[in-house]
Specification:
- It is built from seven helices and two strands, in the order H-H-H-H-H-E-E-H-H.
- The protein has about 160 residues and is mostly helical.
- The longest helix is centred in the last third of the chain and has 25 residues.
């Protein structure tokens, strides 16, 4: 299932990215009520989250958050997000069951010590992307976009 979720995550991200990159930059950066107030910031948050979880899993002591002091374009953001998503897909396609059961330890943003198995973390990473893709669709609707893709898991399954 996690292998499928890794592939689905890339497919669904790309569907949304295609729409975002096709609209003018002023719409990409226009303020829209949501958790993050524009399309670029939402995509940047998705990249930050995938990157931080990757670094946690790899036991990095200090995290490099792509969004810290970010000065690039939306294209830079989506290239970073897709690169990170491909790392996840490659990793889940080559992981063993014992590695998925491995419990790793990390500090969350509140500096609380947390332990969880890798498979739970991966489930969270992929669900987190789904949540924010839903926000992106809603934001695109608010910006007047009408041709929006279905990014449902079942749509991905039917395309396979």
């Amino acid at each position: 299932m996690l292998k499928q979720m890794g592939s689905y995550n890339i497919w669904a991200n790309q569907k949304i990215i295609d729409v975002v990159l096709a609209i003018p930059e002023e719409k990409q950066l226009a303020e829209v009520p949501s958790s993050f107030n524009n399309l670029q910031k939402t995509l940047l948050h998705m990249w930050d989250a995938e990157s931080i979880w990757w670094q946690r899993m790899k036991m990095h002591e200090r995290f490099i958050r792509p969004g810290d002091n970010f000065k690039g374009t939306t294209l830079d953001v989506v290239n970073g997000l897709m690169s990170q998503s491909h790392l996840w897909e490659g990793w889940v396609n080559n992981v063993s069951d014992p590695m998925l059961e491995h419990v790793f330890e990390f500090r969350n943003n509140k500096q609380e010590q947390i332990k969880m198995p890798i498979w739970q973390m991966l489930t969270h990473v992929f669900n987190h992307g789904t949540y924010h893709r839903g926000q992106l669709i809603n934001m695109l609707r608010q910006l007047g976009e009408e041709k929006l893709p279905s990014t449902d898991f079942s749509a991905w399954c039917r395309k396979r």
